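Provenance and format

Records in this collection were gathered into a single text stream. Each protein contributes a sequence line and a token line. The two records reproduced below are adjacent in the stream.
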Amino acid sequence: MQDTRERSGKSARLEDIAREAGVSISTVSRALNDSPAVKRRTKQEIWKIARAHDYDFRSTMPNGPIGADATIAVIVPAPQARETRVADPFFLDLLAGIAEAARERNADLVISHLSPRSTEDIEYAMSTSRATGMIFIGQSSLHHAFNSFAARDNRFVVWGAEFADAAYCTIGSDNVAGGRRATSHLARLGREKILFLGDTEAPEAEQRHRGYRLALEQAGIALDDQLTVPAHFDVHSAEAATRSAIDSGVEFDAVFAASDLIAIGAIRALTRSGRSVPGDVSVVGYDNIPAASLVTPRLTTIDQDANLAGRMLVSKLIDTKGGRGASQRLETSLLIRDSCGG
């Protein structure tokens, strides 16, 4: 068949696509807007013709291939005063769980380029997205912004910390219980100067620190502010923070790190300073990323099931059909490996 553009001298019109597809103009219009009123095979044929003729359908095209039952956008807010690290191993584990769950539900998955830092950024993301729903990985400092938008748009769910006043759905591990479990294990090993390493401005890390404080109190160990050392969620920041604590003369015989990457950075600093792990210092991480069982010594850590978390996030978006789903906490478990001794 002769190209529609050659015959008309112009870009293809709805009438041209309808004629070639053998359907009405209204059917073409509905198909290009992914209307459920049009059968999937008919949509696929219409979109194929539209692409062949360079029809400008980007403004109406869904965020994924035609025929999906839903489209889910994943957005990673920027941490406080830092750039987003999409390559974080735990994020990738969580994303794998989301992707598998989305595939099972015949949903397309889109990783957004947006990295919101403010209320205005959240408003832009929510008002311009054509996705069925959005998953935010982490709250950063946007808790109040999420609360504000939940009153008018419930097409989102957040992986993150649980807040008593949250008006939106969150999925996350029980960070307080996890922090308490890790610290209590170190105390049972006879460690009395336990250093907490992490960014307490981050909601999840703050709650893990709360669990750390509760465990110290239960063990009868006095809280020492010198033993709370800020570190971002990456190896290099943690290594530098641990090295600074050592150089400053801070005495500690154990480390509870707010993530496995932080724990690995701490082990690097300890080893380079001539201290043995776990002989001189016991170390516990959080997340159970794949590298945790591969480093030397193998890392004792708090496990949170990233695969289950991904499935729960997808389920909350699809099954609640626009209503607010109930927030849920994942149970945590302590995986004891070589970095603690005892």
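Adjacent record:
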Amino acid sequence: MTQAPFQPGDRAVEASQASASSWQAKAQLFDYRQAANPVRPGLTEPIRYHQWSPELHQSGPTAVIPLDLSAELGCSGPATSPALAAHFLRIQAGEGLKAAANATSSLFYVLQGAGQLQWAARALHWGAGDLFVLPAGEAPLLQAEHTSVLYWVHDGPLLSHLGVEATQARFEPAHYPAAWLQQELDQLLADPTAARSNRLSLLLANSDLPQSRTVTHTLWAMLGLVPPGAVQPPHRHQSVALDLIIDCDPGCYTLVGTELDASGAIANARRIDWQAGGAFITPPGHWHAHVNSSNRLARLLPIQDAGLHTYLRSLDICFAGGIHSDS
């Protein structure tokens, strides 16, 4: 049998077919009913409750201590949520530590100690109760005058997921001194109308971000108070909350759950007991209410990716019983 002579166009056809095959190599189709909600165990793992003890940072050498849930989340780590990474920084007196991350936003809260920050040819003296935020740039150097513990949250996991590098500062760095925060909290406590609000707290903001009123363009932070005997009504939102307990006595806790009962309380609530200097995570969309059954004021610092959600218009904050955020 005589084979047909090779035509010059045949090679182009073969190349086109091979190219089409390579374009389709990764293409898939799913029945909508099987793939519309992939957040479930074994696929996209749901964010679960987790708690970290203050014992993590109460002793030991100078170190970065990540609160890493990346294995449970199925993402590259360290990561505490899909978008955020939280850490404790323990720095021995007279030593220094670089907080290096590919991140657009880094937030630091000083739990104890005092020292100096060196960043981009700028310096800042920090002490217990101070909070400061830094944009993308060189890794900050934290040098401790006294043995210190800081809480550090950044948005590196979000950038890792997107496959991008942080190259542009989107806001100016900002410092919230402890004395200023305390002054504002005292005024809030003295305001008789504050008792009617869902939360007794200060939202930290940056004047570079007037639309979101958030501490950075991705991060949201709130310095909150729970007075003795207070039971704060439940609320929920689609951002993940990384809660740092600054100060409390036994008897302070958070109730969390996915549903409300007919009275507006959280149904089948799980109780998360607070520990001063400890941290826990509140999953997105879960109702949560803070309770202080002790005889002393408690303080907490929730940090969320709500700056990003506010920009996306997806925060969806809801309050039980028809209570509004400004009431």
